[in-house]
Amino acid sequence: MVILLDAMGGDNAPDATIKGAVKAINQIESEVVLIGNEEIINQKVKEFYGKNAISEISPRLKIHHTLETIEMEDIPTQAIKHKKDSSMVVGFNMLKEGKGDVFISAGNSGALLTGATLLVGRIKGVDRPALAGILPAYKSRLVLMDCGANTNCKPINLLQFAQMSSIYLQTTLGVKSPRVGLLNIGTEETKGNELTKESYQLLKEKSKELGVNFIGNVEGREAFLGGVDIIVTDGFTGNIFLKAVEGLGKFVKRTLSESLKKNLLSKLAAVPSLPAINRFAKTVDYKEYGGALFLGVKKPVVKAHGSSDEKLFEFTIKQAEQFVKNKAVEKLTEEFSKQREQNIEESETTNS
Amino acid sequence: MVILLDAMGGDNAPDATIKGAVKAINQIESEVVLIGNEEIINQKVKEFYGKNAISEISPRLKIHHTLETIEMEDIPTQAIKHKKDSSMVVGFNMLKEGKGDVFISAGNSGALLTGATLLVGRIKGVDRPALAGILPAYKSRLVLMDCGANTNCKPINLLQFAQMSSIYLQTTLGVKSPRVGLLNIGTEETKGNELTKESYQLLKEKSKELGVNFIGNVEGREAFLGGVDIIVTDGFTGNIFLKAVEGLGKFVKRTLSESLKKNLLSKLAAVPSLPAINRFAKTVDYKEYGGALFLGVKKPVVKAHGSSDEKLFEFTIKQAEQFVKNKAVEKLTEEFSKQREQNIEESETTNS
């Protein structure tokens, strides 16, 4: 198995990508190919580890040399078209050509989504691929889809997000019949904007035959208490939701650590309870939940958090290996082509 | 000063409204009129305090008898039209007739918004009144407008939300030039959906002349760190944001308390640091931030949280007195009529 890693993507690249790969390599079976500027990478390897080549650390660590990098300011479609030798475009092409089993990048989100769709291609039957992110929840996890790939969506897109994420949870986490909720501002079916109202009806009508366990509208205030496994929404609303949660998480961590340091007494008193507090902080830290899988394209593409540090890259690399092992994308493709054939048969029966 | 309280509104009414009013009364100067079923209220007063009438607790506590209640399931416009003797409709009419200075209700949100607009009336120049909620932020507070009153909005509405909430923060909290951000999924001005893109342009163009300190797009992940005072958005997105924050807040509180109780050692160890942890929990608890003011109507209307307990009612009542004292609504009305006159003059000059 080969994991392709965009070594130049993200706010902390290439330091964090290199260190993350080195940390992960002895915990996985796959090869990791760092795609990026070989000279820069080797220089960093020398600096961090005193080695002349990354392969001295592990024979399963490799470099694929590229010169260009897609920057955060680049316009996605132009960057994908014109920066042919960028780490991202090369990564997508290697994935497409079977030179790797999964591609991870923390680079420009728009370019990543454009590249995944244009270079890797959509699964037949999927109108809009989208990002499925994993968030912490009470004694469980929560999948949010779409996390931000499609600003404008139609009800059919949300129905497909429900299908895709259900298959994903079943195959990767072994959740038998994942409960799917529609993100909304009230639980009644008449609540919300046009998109949520229409999507509710479509989900209600089609879920059963598509094997989706639709439980109705879900509000954010109940989302983290363990009553729902998947939340579907358009990419704009999903991204607002995701970032609100991240923002409050940051605030919580900062305030908690300052509260405990406020005076010497509580500082001293806090020391013995630090393990418990750290356990808590880990639970609510979205960074502990790794990258988002871009569901709906023909090969596994993982969007790592833009501000990923070495720890998060380590985690995301391990997670990517699991995605490949669990054959999430193969199973998704299979299920979709099955449903597509059924639909074609049905429409032929109707027409004849 | 007279505070009108819908005694029958909210999940925990009338117990929580009565207890909240009793707790608040010695901390405020105003009268509090509990609007609701006198028999039920007196029975509760007897049960809770062993008194025959609420006036025995304080001469500033009164009851205005009504028979009906607007329920959570009621259709807003119909309820406001037909339940003439409901605590909510009676409250609005008393406010309109000058029998009170502010009206607080934790009842049916839709009915409250319909009632405020239909019975109390919009301030001239305001197209859409909306809910301005206060959220915790790092060493500060954050105003979110609209929290959920208007599911569909136009750019002009968001501009007016920016104006209204700026005047509100200046007059009630003394913030000189509140920084206004537009809630979006990226900071660049080209990011977002149609509404945010158009609103960005309108805010950029008009803010200065309207005295609004517009600082651009704001993402949720930076919202709580103290860099912004006001976030404007449509009511759908605002409500998604608000409830995501509430949901994570609930999860944080539950996980933290369980983490600390997990084993005897951390339980014992946690005891001395409890004051710090409680201080922290208070900081991130949205309930510490009281009700949302319905800005854009002619008199002060406060939407208390639907699941308010006695403590939150106590807080909201004290907050409502401050709203009245600070003349937030009068100042808003004045400012809007000024700008309206200027616009009329300008258009006359242009036409002549």
The low-pLDDT segments of chain A are: none
Assembly category: homodimer
| Overall helicity of chain A | 40-55%
Q: Cα-atom Rg of chain A, whole angstroms?
A: 21 Å
Biggest beta-sheet profile of chain A: 11 strands, mixed
Estimated share of beta-strand residues of chain A:
15-25%
Shape designation of chain A: globular
Number of strands of chain A: 11
Give the SSE order of chain A as H and E letters. Answer: EHEHEHHEHEEHEHEHEHHHEEHH
Mean pLDDT of chain A, to the nearest integer, reads 89
Alpha plus pi helix count of chain A: 13
Strand order of the largest sheet of chain A: 3-2-1-4-11-10-5-6-9-7-8
Pair with the biggest interface? A-B, 54 and 54 residues
Going by helix content, strand content and strand pairing, the class of chain A is alpha/beta
Distance between the termini of chain A: 47 Å
Can you describe this structure?
The structure is a homodimer of 352-residue chains. Chain A is an alpha/beta fold and 352 residues long. Helices cover 49% and strands 16% of the residues of chain A. Chain A has helices at 15-25, 38-49, 76-82, 87-96, 109-120, 155-173, 194-206, 220-223, 235-261, 264-270, 274-284, 310-325, 328-351; strands at 2-6, 31-36, 61-65, 102-105, 130-137, 140-145, 179-183, 213-218, 230-232, 292-295, 301-303. Chain A has an eleven-stranded mixed sheet, with helices on both faces. In chain A, strand 1, helix 1 and strand 2 form a beta-alpha-beta unit. In chain A, helix 1 packs across helix 12 (310-325) and helix 6 (155-173) packs across helix 13. The radius of gyration of chain A is 21 Å and the shape is globular. The mean pLDDT of chain A is 89. At the A-B interface, helix 8, helix 9, helix 10 and helix 11 of A face helix 8, helix 9, helix 10 and helix 11 of B.
